[in-house]
Amino acid sequence: MKICPRCGEENSDRSLFCEHCGYEFANEETLPKRNQGANLQEPNPSPNYTVSQKKSSLPKWPFIIAGVAVLAVIAGVGFAMAGRSNNEANLPATTVSSSKVDTSKYDEIIAEAKELTINGEYKKSNLKLSRISASDLGKSEFSAIADEVDDLTDKNEEGLKQEEDKEATQKAQEKDRPAVTTSGNTSGFSGDYAKWANTYYFYYSQTSQRQTALTIGANGSVTQKNVNGTQYFGKATITNASGDVLSYETNEQYPSDMPDTKLINPNVQITVKWDGGGTQIYYGYVSYSSRLALTDGVAKNAGVNEVWIS
Fold first, then answer.
1. What pLDDT score does 275 carry?
2. Which of 18, 15, 19, 8 is nearest to 41 (CA)?
3. Which tens digits make up the pLDDT trace of 197-242?
4. Which residues contact 45 (CB under 8 A, 6 or more apart)?
5. 208, exposed or middle or buried, with CB in 10 Å at 0-12, 13-18, 19+?
6. Which spans does this entry mark as compositional bias, Basic and acidic residues (predicted)?
């Protein structure tokens, strides 16, 4: 091993320069070796040599390049993170909300259909509801809309059925009209007729009958209300009447079972012309319970088609 005369460190026998301080070995044979004997002494390093001189002789450029590379990597990562944050911040607000389904687009149609149903315009209501997409109604998001459509459709079908029943009843009335004699001129509801301007309630309901109240105003206006909330409007005239007309026994307030029928002698005939078309005739009399009663005198299922009491 070669001993460097400057730093005293060991070097390979073939080294031309000190591997530690860079000292040039001018004459390899004259350099002392540690393994040549105990009488050989290691030369003292130059008195002017210091540790700082040893360190300063080491090349620095590899460390500088490595440091620059590390800084470049850190800067690149920082720019990438900043760019990603900016992109996320600049995303349009609709990116999140675009997947939501607008279930309010049918609110106006539902509202209009409800109003038509309340006014008894069932066919128009069904036509309005047909504008709602059937494919949307099959989606879970539109379940509430589908329920409202089903409810309105059921009410419309029931209303149309009542109109059919009413029309059939009117035709039956024309055919089975009792022999009643009327006298006097057609008059308004004043004088002796004033008491017949009243509110009457349906006495006994058979299958498919949904009438609830019948109001006759002093000016002859007529409003019939039904269980489902629909109403019919018309105009009434009144005359004296006599003869035999079919009605119910009206001793009970509101019977749960069909009451017995009987023939009565009416005091007046009230003729109603409905705004929607058709004519209805009622015969008014005072019952044994002193209540005013109206009957159409038409037999139905072993009973009477319509009987109203005040």
1. 92
2. 8
3. 999 999 888 777 788 899 999 899 999 999 888 899 999 999 998 8
4. 4, 5, 6, 7, 8
5. exposed
6. 152-178
